[in-house]
Design a protein that fits this description.
The complex is a heterodimer of chains A (233) and B (92). Chain A has 233 residues and is mostly helical. Chain A has helices at residues 2-27, 41-68, 73-108, 117-138, 144-156, 158-168, 188-232. The chains are: A mainly alpha (233), B mainly alpha (92).
Chain lengths: 233, 92
């Protein structure tokens, strides 16, 4: 039954990704000013949207870990697995945004990168979460998970700053397309393509997040078995 | 058969990365600033449209390369955990 549900989920996700791709490439019209290049938005924006959702999940996991670590170790381990899965999947989506952005910028602005407020805060966000993952990979000892949880909470504080950066400071990055005041907004056919891509990438993201969570839970199980074996021998 | 599958899930993102890099780094050069002295408006527009097309394709390709690369890494990790669990059970 579980395998059937996973298979169905995979099928729906694949179909939605194909449908969203079709909407982005063949259905949505070219932008009047930027032409075909504007279609990068259909992968660029959903990547950041999903990345923010996953960093929020990582924040919840980190807070829950700190709350449960003394009185409920079982729940704390579940929260820690959620925190690491959210952070890692979030970094993957953030990387997609950080790679597609310069490709777009090279054509639209004539440069790969500029130290604009939105770009810089996003790079800082990526670096914080990469350092979170490196901490988890290379630090040892009983305090590692606690330190990682604290770093995860500080990292999440950058998410609202990234979101608001092009509202607070008007630098190189374009103004927000949605919720950016009177002149913001998109053609309805473009909005449709963007929303389909957001949904499709969210489903894909949940799939890899769930997979990463399972991998982490398994890792915890292996570590517990090995620790028990070391104690018994 | 299992090994072939593992090789394939690793090879696909690598090929996609290579393809995205090829699209960007072997794209035709940008029209010069004084392009009006060297080419017609139609030729200029063709070059710009080609570059836009190549960069858009590169952005889509690199997205898939990163996503599939991460999924491949998770599958490889899952398989290595499976082996470790089997070894631990045998040892006990």
């Amino acid at each position: 039954m579980k395998k059937l549900a996973i298979g169905l989920y995979l099928l729906v996700t694949a179909a939605l990704l194909a449908w969203a791709y079709n909407q982005a490439i063949y259905v949505a019209p070219n932008d009047a000013a930027q032409g075909e290049m504007f279609r990068i938005i259909y992968y660029h924006v959903p990547s950041f949207a999903v990345c923010f959702v996953f960093f929020a999940l990582s924040l919840i996991g980190s807070i829950a870990f700190l709350a449960f670590r003394h009185n409920n170790p079982g729940r704390a381990q579940v929260a820690d697995a959620l925190a690491v899965a959210g952070a890692e999947a979030g970094v993957v989506f953030c990387s997609v945004g950080l790679v597609t952005g310069p490709l777009w910028g090279r054509r639209a602005w004539g440069m790969w990168w500029t130290w604009d407020a939105r770009l810089t805060t996003t790079l800082v966000l990526w670096l914080i979460y990469v350092s979170y993952l490196l901490l988890r990979r290379f630090a040892a000892g009983p305090q590692m998970q606690t330190l990682a949880a604290v770093l995860g909470i500080f990292g999440a504080l950058d998410v609202p700053i990234v979101y608001m950066a092009n509202r607070w400071w008007r630098t190189q990055h374009p103004a927000p397309v949605f919720g950016g005041g009177q002149d913001s907004g998109m053609d309805p056919t473009m909005v449709g393509a963007l929303l389909w891509n957001m949904l499709a990438w969210l489903l894909w993201g949940v799939l890899i997040l769930a997979f990463r969570y399972r991998v982490e839970r398994r890792q915890q199980k292996i570590a517990a078995e090995e620790a028990e074996e070391a104690l018994n021998s | 058969m299992k090994k072939l599958g593992t090789v394939l899930i690793i090879a696909v993102p690598v090929v996609l990365f290579g393809w995205a890099g090829y699209l960007v780094f072997f794209a035709p050069s940008e029209p010069p600033f004084d392009w009006r002295l060297h080419m017609s408006q139609a030729d200029h527009d063709t070059i710009v449209a080609t570059l836009n097309h190549l960069y858009t394709r590169a952005a889509y390709t690199v997205t898939w390369a990163i996503q599939l690369g991460y999924a491949a890494w998770l599958i490889v990790k899952w398989q290595s955990q499976q082996r470790k669990l089997t070894e631990n059970r045998r040892a006990n």
